[in-house]
Amino acid sequence: MPSPPRKILHVDMDAFYASVEQRDAPDLRGQPVVVAWRGARSVVCAASYEARKFGVRSAMPAVRAERLCPQAMFVPPDFARYKAVSRQIREIFARHTDLIEPLSLDEAYLDVTITKTDLPSATATAEAIRTAIREETQLTASAGVAPNKFLAKIASDWNKPDGLFVIRPHRVEAFLAPLPVGRLPGVGKVMERRLADLGVATVADLRGLESAALEHHFGRWGRRLHELSLGIDEHPVQPERPTLQISSEDTFEHDLPLEALEPHIRRLAEKTWAGYQREREQHDERIARTVVLKLKTSDFRILTRSLTPSLRPASLTELSDIACDLRSRVEHPPHTRYRLVGVGLSGFVDRDSLAAQTDLFDLSDNAIE
């Protein structure tokens, strides 16, 4: 007998950092708020909905945000305060289920197929969680309810801010059909263009291609695309696990030689470093020691080069420089072209473990002396 559909929630706080700032400072309410340090190298951590009307978005350079919205009120981030509120929200989640998969300080998946309460449905559970968040934190959250994770995430964005949207199992295929393929997880701009070349613009178009045809064009990813077009996603909600690697990668529109990759490596290093900083917000005791450079050649061969320096990368500049230097370890002929580059941080250890290793190295050096 097939197992009954899972009941999955995706709960996403609305403009979280900016909303905390507006809650705690009445003069910011109703104003375009940008959470960021000012400066040429700063990026936007969050933008209030008032600022978003001007096109300001998270991860945007702060100088561009200032150009788009000169009247914006810039507030430096206070991650200790955001973490404290995030813990409050997690405690609310835990009243309903232990199957919680945090994605960041402000969003998480919850499996509420079986709950700790006597609420009659997943929808009722989502409403109870949103109500508790509003009453206990004076903030709002949006939630999606669906039979699996990727649908729940799409649903949580459907009625933002302060909304709830439910995708019922019997409505999955009809709901997905008119959506642009870019709404599917893993389908970025490059993949959208490649699918457009096959006449695919919507999920319904994608569904019209056979799985074998998609696999012919995209390998195993083609099979995954076919499953997503049908609303199939068997990935379970996984309670928090230690991070093994944080990375960012990009596929180029045109293949590039090795010497032309530096600006792309530095751009991706910036994204990876931002992801690492978000990880540190939640797990300050976890330290990354290894820098990874990933390349994919024009004929789809994947290369990785890594380095674990004696001192862990402590800044974006150090990460960028090491990643760029790793190109010297690529032995392919100069005429080789590359279609993808990625920059990662791995080799995570606990801060105490790192300190112990450092002490051990220091003792060894003293013994040699």
Helix/strand layout:
Elements: E1 8-13, H1 16-24, E2 33-35, E3 46-47, H2 49-52, H3 62-68, E4 73-75, H4 79-94, E5 100-104, E6 107-111, H5 122-137, E7 141-146, H6 149-156, E8 164-166, H7 172-176, H8 189-197, H9 203-208, H10 211-218, H11 220-229, E9 245-257, H12 262-282, E10 286-287, E11 290-297, E12 302-307, H13 316-325, E13 337-346, E14 349-350, H14 351-368
Parallel strand pairs: 2-4, 7-8
Antiparallel strand pairs: 1-6, 1-7, 2-3, 5-6, 9-13, 10-14, 11-12, 11-13
Summed up, what is this model?
This protein has 369 residues and is α+β, with helices and mostly antiparallel strands.
How would a textbook summarize the main sheet?
5 strands, mixed
Kindly identify the CATH topology of the largest domain: MutS, DNA mismatch repair protein, domain I
Shape verdict: globular
Distinct helical segment count: 14
What is the typical, i.e. mean, pLDDT? Answer: 88
Helix content: 25-40%
Q: Assign the CATH architecture of the largest domain.
A: 3-Layer(aba) Sandwich
Structural class: alpha+beta
Poorly predicted ranges (pLDDT <50, ≥5 residues)? 354-369
Q: Quote the beta fraction.
A: 15-25%
Question: Order of helices and strands, N to C?
Answer: EHEEHHEHEEHEHEHHHHHEHEEEHEEH
Number of domains: 3
Spatial extent as radius of gyration: 23 Å
What is the number of strand segments? 14
Q: Order of strands across the widest beta sheet? A: 5-6-1-7-8
List its traits.
369 residues; alpha+beta; MutS, DNA mismatch repair protein, domain I; DNA polymerase, domain 1; Dna Ligase, domain 1; 5-stranded mixed sheet; 4-stranded antiparallel sheet; globular; disordered C terminus
